[in-house]
């Protein structure tokens, strides 16, 4: 599990994927979200700009990011 310390109120989903190095670029992050390969709190998410907040869990490629 990857723990990501949130500095502000939220982080956009694609920015979180980039910040945790699970993707190489913003374009790659957008593509994987649009393809339905990312789950947020157990639900498949297709909104690229979803505001991820403290307490959320994001799953991608059998890795889980816990936002703290």
How far the N terminus sits from the C terminus, by CA atoms, comes to: 12 Å
How many helices? The count is 2
Describe the biggest sheet? 5 strands, mixed
Strand composition percent: 25-35%
- Largest beta sheet: what is the strand line-up? 1-7-6-3-4
What is the residue-mean pLDDT, rounded to a whole number?
96
- Using only CA atoms, what is the Rg? 10 Å
How would the global form be characterised?
globular
Structural class assignment: alpha+beta
Stretches where pLDDT is under 50 for at least 5 consecutive residues are none
**What helical percentage do the residues reach?**
10-25%
What is the N-to-C order of secondary-structure elements (H for helix, E for strand)? EEHHEEEEE
How many distinct beta strands? 7
What assembly state would you assign to the polypeptide chains in this entry? single chain
How would you describe this structure in keywords?
globular; 68 residues; five-stranded mixed beta sheet; alpha+beta; two-stranded antiparallel sheet
Topology:
Blueprint: E1 2-4, E2 11-12, H1 13-19, H2 26-34, E3 39-40, E4 43-44, E5 51-52, E6 57-60, E7 63-67
Helix pairs in contact: 1-2
